[in-house]
Automatic annotation (TrEMBL):
It comes from Candidatus Fusicatenibacter merdavium. This is LicD family protein. Residues 25-250 form the LicD/FKTN/FKRP nucleotidyltransferase domain. Pfam families: LicD (PF04991). Transmembrane segments: none annotated. InterPro entries: LicD/FKTN/FKRP_NTP_transf, LPS_cholinephosphotransferase. It comes from the Bacteria. GO terms for biological process: glycoprotein metabolic process.
Length: 274
């Protein structure tokens, strides 16, 4: 296998996956749009943030489930969806559409066959219209995500991650999570996230990953999409992308300090065939 050495090569593979996703979604009437650093890159750089190599998209839960069925492991497609419904070993609450001609190994050491991927986050409806209405649900998901993350780590990794010293209480807490199992936690997360449908909801958000309250927003922000340029292509973005980016990043057109312009991903990747 030939190792994928440069950030530019990783970006090119991820971009090819996004080109496929865009065409596939158009052909099957599915909705997606760029989010997070991908959307920021489209607006500020008209492409990748120079020091970033990943791509993130959101899909409404219903369309996320459809694309899971259409691009499963038996689809025969070069680009396939992997999530908790397609792989028993998978340990994330969101999905990834991966290039099966590549192989990727994450430093976290999750077992299973993965390739270079685009992260696909399903978004769901939220109760009510104010933060106090949906905050308890989101915080519950955040807590469950913390439990899931720790359940995947060794005791030493757990202590290092929390920057804490070992004691009987810490060990018992880690062991309880480990015995309960990340798979069971993931299923609970998934069930909880599906509590409220997107249709008819005033607020929506990606709560399956238990990430942050900042990802929750009025449904009107993402109800319609528009096209933005990204690396010479035009991809879908939420029509309210300015609201989204300001909520997430504040002054999003301002570049971060140079010392913060680093890649945060920890993995190695190869082409399966040279």
């Amino acid at each position: 296998m030939k190792k994928i050495e440069t950030i530019e090569e990783m970006q090119k593979i991820a971009l090819d996956i996004l080109v496929f996703i865009d065409q596939f979604c158009r052909e099957h009437g599915l909705k997606y749009f760029m989010v997070d650093g991908t959307l920021l890159g489209a607006v500020r750089h008209h492409g990748f943030i120079p020091w970033d190599d990943d791509i993130d998209i959101w899909m409404p839960r219903e369309d996320y489930d459809k694309i899971t069925e259409l691009l499963g492991p038996d689809s025969g497609s070069r680009y396939q969806m992997i999530n908790i419904r397609t792989a028993d070993w998978y340990r994330y609450a969101f999905g990834k559409i991966m290039d099966t001609k590549t192989r990727l190994v994450e430093d976290l050491g999750y077992s299973g066959e993965m390739g270079v991927y685009v992260d696909v986050f399903p978004y769901d409806g939220l109760p009510g219209e104010k933060e106090e209405d949906y905050a308890p649900l989101v915080k519950q998901c955040i807590q469950m995500e913390a439990h899931r993350g720790f359940s995947c780590r060794t005791y030493r990794e757990y202590l290092e991650y929390g920057n804490c010293k070992s004691n009987p209480f810490k060990f018992a807490k880690w062991l309880a999570r480990k015995l309960y199992g990340s798979r069971r936690i993931l299923k609970k997360q998934d069930e909880l996230a599906r509590s409220y449908p997107v249709k008819g909801a005033k607020m929506v958000g990606c709560i399956c990953d238990g990430y942050r309250l900042g990802d929750m927003m009025p449904a009107s922000v993402v109800e319609k999409t528009t096209e933005l340029e990204f690396e010479g292509h035009r991809f879908q973005a939420p029509a309210g992308y300015e609201y989204y980016l300001k909520k997430l990043y504040g002054d999003y057109m301002k570049l971060p300090p140079e010392e913060e312009r680093v890649t945060h991903h920890h993995y190695q990747a190869w082409w399966k065939e040279t």
